[in-house]
Amino acid sequence: MSGYLTGVLVVLAFNVMAAYAVYLPLAAGQLNLGIAGFMAIGAYGSAFLTNEYMWPMWAAIPAGALAAGLTGFLIGLPVLRTHGIYFAMATFALGQVISAVFLNLEVVGGAAGYPVTDYAGPNVVFAAAAGVVLLMLYISRTRFALELTAVKSDATVADLLGVPVRGMKVAAFALGAMVAGFGGALYAHHYNFVEAQHFNVLLSVFTVLYVLFGGTQTVWGPLVGAAFFTLVPELLRASDQWRYALFAVFIIVFMAIRPQGLVTAALFRLFRRRAPEASS
Amino acid sequence: MSTALEISALSKSFAGVQAIRDLSFAVPKGVSTALIGPNGAGKTTVFNMVSGVYGVDAGRITVNGVDVTGMPSRQRIGTGVARSFQNVRLMPHLSVLENLLVGQHVRASSLGALLTPYRLIPNHRWKREARAALEESGLGRWADETVSALPYGVRKRIDLVRATLAGASLLMLDEPAAGLNPSETNALRDHLKALMAKGTTLLVVEHDMHFVESICQNVVVLNFGEKIAEGPLSRVRQDPRVREAYIGSDGEA
Lengths: 280, 253
Known about the structure:
The complex is a heterodimer.
Chain A: H1 3-27, H2 35-53, H3 57-79, H4 84-103, E1 114-115, H5 122-140, H6 143-153, H7 155-160, H8 165-191, E2 193-194, H9 201-214, H10 221-235, H11 242-257, H12 265-279
Antiparallel strand pairs in A: 1-2
Chain B: E1 3-14, E2 17-28, E3 33-36, H1 43-51, E4 58-63, E5 66-67, H2 73-76, E6 81-83, H3 96-103, H4 111-114, H5 125-136, H6 152-165, E7 170-174, H7 182-197, E8 201-205, H8 209-215, E9 218-223, E10 226-231, H9 233-236, H10 240-245
Helix pairs in contact in B: 3-6, 6-7
């Protein structure tokens, strides 16, 4: 594999992990606009453990993910009292605050950035991303995923049927934060350098765009969305600067004619129905 | 006879307007009851308080012998009470089967149950149970359809199946016959009668008195948040206060 291709695929792997971090709470109707903040916690947390305490990477990365998940849990409890746009704004502010804290934290290098010792090669990143996808596929086959959808669809009815609405939301938010932290921790160990400026608003917003583009109705949406946003701009490289304009126009048109995203549940049902017909 | 629902001295006001005033009545097990009255009489408010969507200002609500007055709405399904809404509220983007699976939550709420990949297991018992319940009600062919694509009458009955799967022994139905054509109404009536035969008690808010007459043995009449009459429909109909409350629709009640 060429260095270029490997580079692109590594970016894809990170984008896929980030997309699933946004997808989980979104499946319960919560738009997390601060996902970059949780990635930063994972990145700095695991980097700090390897640099200062000589933790091996394989222990430091999960620890970074756990730290991000725990932060998500503790912050989710109060923040999930808000709804809709207020929740989105709260997470947006949260992402900014976390990023600002790391920017000013001298113990991890502050604005100068923070070099990281242990190196995670491309294959580790690919395996990790595949692991996240498999985990999400598993979750999507459980009652947990079904009940997240129920909470998103009609929280009052879900509550009356006994579904712990708040618990479900907090769990999805914290799990999403953990996946973000996991991706961030790997990022730190793959590029061997973290700087707070990387975990900015654009990163959060782009990740949300992957998920909305791919579609939130099925577990495949984030994967397709992240792949599209990572690979298509590369394929359009030949058109030079015009690719950004072309790409932007395409997104606007696409979201206007298919706001539910590329991959939908109805699409799957269509294929499932066709298959038995074809075989009979 | 034990009671499915007992409401005593219940009161509720919204911004100074008394919606329910000192209301008491009981629904004995097996005696399906209709809650009737003019618009704004407080019928849906009673449903909302029993299901826990609203808190109460004063009074006590007991379901199957359990005091639910201060109980969080989420836990009340565990006492056997379920409700429907005036406009059916199923999860529109989910399939019929998935809606029914959500209904099973109260009996499958452990962490292990939540994390079981039932969709990977062919013919998992939850799916089997939901399909069987659908078949029993003659709705089997809709199992894999998306709810939003179904006729209104079918959706209403799927709502009933979902409540049944939640283990409801007291079912509160808010205008079940509204918006249905005659054949759909008949199908709904048969469905409800089948549920009653299996021991479910109904509390029904309904304007169609023929429908009420065909499924309810007892009627409670509300007006301006107060109970003005109670008893079999034939007797309640003759009550002067009921006639007065229904002026304009003379003879209907």
